[in-house]
Amino acid sequence: MTKSVTLKDVAQRVGVTAAAASMALSGHDRISDTTRAAVRRAADELGYVPSSAGRALRNQKAGAVALVVPNSAQHVFGHLYFMHVLDGVSEAANAHDAQVIVSTNADAERGVVAYERVMRSRTADGAIVTSAAIDDTNVERLVASGLPVVLLGNFPYLADGISVGIDDVAATRHITEHLLDQHGRQRLVHVTGTLDHQTGIDRRAGFLDAVRSRGLDADARIVEGDLGEQSGADAMTALLDEGAGFDGVVFANDDMALGGLRVLQQRGVDVPGDVSIVGFDDFGFARVTTPGITTIRVPAEEMARIATERLFDLVDGVDGWSRHELDVDLVVRESCGCTAPH
Asked: Looking at the chain, which residues constitute the CATH 1.10.260.40 domain(s)?
């Protein structure tokens, strides 16, 4: 069998100590750029693979981070948001030569298991938490446990929480104002996300801010959805069946906008001629519908990457920010009445 290449082999190839080679591979600033490049080139040529397990043992670390999703596996693998989050977490973890452990539970009533695995097993050095409900006390327990934790989203009730997110209120207000000001829509409907999550509450608040500021709240309607495509379809079916008069719909995400668009078209409603619609997220299919869906682009992958980098700082005892808020973009397509850019 071929002998495994060791760090000592790499160091000998370059003519440095094993300690210097280790620091070069980890990017330590005590090592010159020339030496770092030489060590990395030698490692590539020899086929050296660093041992994350060995490094973790030396540092008394697990060499892994946990992505905690206290919902169900269906939520994780059935929604594009989570795929973007997983990509961002994995990118940052790979840069630190760490593993990613996804902790979730198929039984939403027993979501505590997703947290317990991380707190008790000691298989992760820290945790990223996403999509936690506002009444989920396990988030507070996890933050209070002493384990480094970074939250994805807004958690105004956690004074000690470290989080990465966007301003959902301002973003939804902005896209609602687009329908009001640019397209003259006056009778708007908002199909919300789940209102047991801060995202759903904040996006509803942004919609209400916009219509109230124009004195149009009396003609506005709120319909609760669940972020699924079918709930968007159900909302439009119910409104059309009751003969509700509306000329614009602000959906809390693109999945519901897709379902709503389908029903409106099936019922002979011209979009955007009779009714303008907009979504939120821009994770993929909004650009390929006919008409394309105007939406807010959420940088979910970047959010997750930044959150994971912050988590590694916490693990290493590095101080830093407690809240990082990313900008979003209004992506204009045809569903609102605009001509989409080519």
From this structure: 7-50
pTM: 0.80
DSSP code for 110: G
Arch. (CATH architecture) of 168-297: 3-Layer(aba) Sandwich (3.40)
pLDDT at 1: 38
What does pLDDT average to over the chain? 88
pLDDT the model gives residue 232: 98
Number of C-beta neighbours around residue 9 at 10 A: 17
Token reading at 301: 């992958």
Burial environment of residue 200 by CB neighbours within 10 A (0 to 12, 13 to 18, 19 or more): buried
User: For residue 291, is the peptide bond before it cis, meaning its omega torsion is within 30 degrees of 0?
Assistant: yes
pLDDT top residue among 117 and 299: 299
Classify domain 7-50 by CATH number. Answer: 1.10.260.40
Residue 250's SS3 state is strand
Per-residue pLDDT reduced to its tens digit, 149-164: 999 999 988 888 899 9
Distance (Å, whole) CA 130 – CA 114: 12
CATH architecture of 64-165+301-325: 3-Layer(aba) Sandwich (3.40)
Other CB atoms within a 10 A radius of the CB of residue 162 amount to 21
323: β partners: 163
Where in the chain are all domains bearing CATH 3.40.50.2300?
64-165+301-325, 168-297
